[in-house]
Amino acid sequence: MRWKISPHGHDVRQIDLVAILALLIVIIVAWRYFGDVPAPHVTAGFIEPSQSVRW
């Protein structure tokens, strides 16, 4: 099958190729974003309720 540009519009295979490239770019950007974000600092420990609080 040869790739021919149809005079009626875009070839379906070209649209699929662009969609695959866009998905790859999104995956790479998300992987880099979530890989570079440092882990949040945990500052809160276990909080014990006051003795004046009635459950």
Provide the fold topology.
Layout: H1 12-36
Report on the structure:
The protein has one helix spanning 12-36. With 55 residues, it is mainly α.
Number of helices: 1
Query: What letter string, H or E per element, gives the SSE order?
Result: H
Query: What's the total number of strands?
Result: 0
Which descriptor suits the 3D outline? rod-shaped
Q: Main beta sheet, described?
A: none
Tell me the distance between the termini.
Answer: 73 Å
Helical residue percent band: 40-55%
Question: Helix/strand/pairing class, anyone?
Answer: mainly alpha
Averaged pLDDT: 77
Quick gist of this model?
By secondary structure, this protein is an all-alpha fold.
Q: Can you give keywords for this protein?
A:
55 residues; mainly alpha; 45% helix; rod-shaped
